[in-house]
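#structure-requests
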Amino acid sequence: MAVLDTEQDQFLCDGTTTVVGLTGEIDIATAERALARIAAATADGCVVVDLSAVEFIDASGVNMLVRALRGATRVQHHLLLAGPTRQLSRILDVLGLRDVLATHDGVAAAVAAHAAPRHGHPPGALR
């Protein structure tokens, strides 16, 4: 079992998502606020985090994304990332988190991936 093995393919959801857009810098000063926004959304359903307007993210920001995934997992909702910058994409690759944090080029791709039925699983179930 991986450290973040979330068994998301077992989650039942209706394929709908809430988009939470983050902007500016995600660092030690802003990460908790961003986490609170994502956590509030994941309490109600599956979430796509739009990172396309994030100009900078540091280790506390990456940690926040992992914590957000854990929170979503606790309530059996999906968390998908959309539009990460080159910097964040590189960080996710280096840390081996891309397999854990479902990442898509943009919001439309993330929403479509979430809504698509997968291998007999209900809409929104990820593989």
